[in-house]
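Subject: 5-oxoprolinase subunit A structure
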Amino acid sequence: MFLVDLNCDLGESFGRFKLGEQEEILKYVTSANVACGFHSGDPTVMRETVKLALDKGVEIGAHPGLPDLVGFGRREIAITPQEGYDMVVYQIGALQGFLATFHEKMQHVKPHGALYNMAAKDSQLAEAIAQAIYDVSPELILFGLANSELTKAGERIGLKTAHEFFADRTYQANGSLTSRTQKDALITDYNQSASQVIRAVKEGKVLSQQHTDVTLRADTVCIHGDGENALLFAKHLNETLEKNGISISAIGKWGSK
């Protein structure tokens, strides 16, 4: 039996700025990465997103990013490993506060955007982020790019680590994501994207832009909540995976199966 977690970045509205159809998307995913106010989100949005996810039975994780609202956390900022550690601890704590009001626990932590991509390549930053998560709670699951420095750091420190695959992104021969600055970075065809996910889950491979196969794990698959037609794609992917013999479940529940 094939098993995969479907995660989605949510809670990325703030103030009068509204982004995504998260109440509907939550019907089709198993884990929610909730923005913690640095790259997006605000206290009210965080609380509302936590409640919506809990109502739908979706597991919740922190989605800490760089302090860059204007750039949506997708612009690299030079930070030290210590600053990365502090940012992650701070943002996990913010979300934990809201979860505590509902008497619920956090499942995972997934860095956002540029912080995620920086940690995928920078071993010192990756170690600082993994240490931050471990120090807050060694029971938290770290979501990171498959085969990256971040997942390696998580495994070394003893965290349960989920290797993440991106449904709507193309890959390079070295296993990295194609930069969003390139026109071929995103996959907009639903069937192409779903086929890529199915192969990653069943075969552990993805075809790179250089037309070579990259070997990787796909424990959890990301759907971007801010993407165009994100709701329709989430529904399509959920249904297509089930039709192809792939069960969908939150990764924190796998041990009980």
